[in-house]
Design goal:
242 residues; alpha/beta; Spore Coat Polysaccharide Biosynthesis Protein SpsA, Chain A; seven-stranded mixed β-sheet; 7 strands; 40% helix; globular
């Protein structure tokens, strides 16, 4: 299957939210969770996170939605996403290449407001995404910092490839590196409120506590967490009897 990027026709002034994603395959997604959760369960979790993230993206009024992914994942993600979401193959390997591909594809003209968003923060208030787009009216770049030193979103009105060279969301130095590059490029940066994504078990525990009170924020993920938390005691009991 070819990339579905032709489904997304942009005009001057369009706002585009691009989700950075991979196909949900065992052993390739949310790998830090594999220390405590079986690979098949982690894969199911990632699929839920991605589904809820796409639903969050589509809840934004007046925003077009796309997914940027490795070329090998286009067909599988197109089947998961449906016709409402354009699936675009990135150029090159790795997250830095993916981010450069986002802004090369969607913001190179300098007439669109484009935000790249991770696929594991579907519980983010939609108001934060809306405010990120608003910040691009007054700044060259907008960043959503995570509590662990990375960032959950980055937006721009143009292609600034040097902003991402060697960079990656989710690392403890990613935010500092991005800010330093922005200063060197003399780009003004606006920041949304700090948030968290789901990388390690403590993040998952925090998310479970929040979604127990408000499952509508990410309903598919909330259902997975409820089911998994019911299974865990049984697994622990089984292990203790071996």
């Amino acid at each position: 299957m070819e990339s579905s990027e032709t489904n997304l026709h942009l005009r001057d002034g369009d706002r585009v939210l691009v989700i950075m994603a991979k196909a949900p395959r065992p052993g390739t997604v949310k790998t830090r969770l594999l220390r405590s959760i079986p690979a098949e369960a982690v894969t199911d979790l990632y699929r839920c996170l991605l589904d809820d993230t796409m639903a969050l993206a589509h809840s934004l009024s007046g925003v077009k939605v796309a997914v940027m992914c490795p070329a090998s994942d286009v067909q599988e993600l197109a089947q998961l996403a449906g016709l409402a979401t354009a699936i675009v193959a990135q150029q090159g390997d790795g997250l830095a290449a993916g981010l450069i591909s986002v802004f090369a594809r969607f913001a190179a003209s300098g007439r669109q407001h484009v935000i790249a968003f991770n696929s594991d923060s579907p519980h983010l208030p939609v108001s934060v995404l809306a405010s990120a787009f608003e910040m691009l009216s007054a700044h060259d770049v907008v960043v959503g910092p995570t509590h662990d030193g990375g960032y959950y979103l980055v937006g721009a009105k143009g292609l600034h490839a040097a902003l991402f060279h060697g960079d990656g969301m989710g690392t403890t130095s990613a935010l500092d590196a991005l800010r330093a590059r922005a200063r060197r490029l003399q780009l003004s940066v606006g920041f949304t409120e700090p948030f968290y994504d789901v990388d390690v078990e403590a993040d998952l525990t925090r998310l479970a506590d929040e979604l127990r009170l408000a499952p509508e924020r990410a309903p598919r993920t909330a259902a997975w967490l409820k089911e998994w938390q019911e299974i865990v005691p049984r697994l622990q009991n089984t292990a203790g009897n071996l």
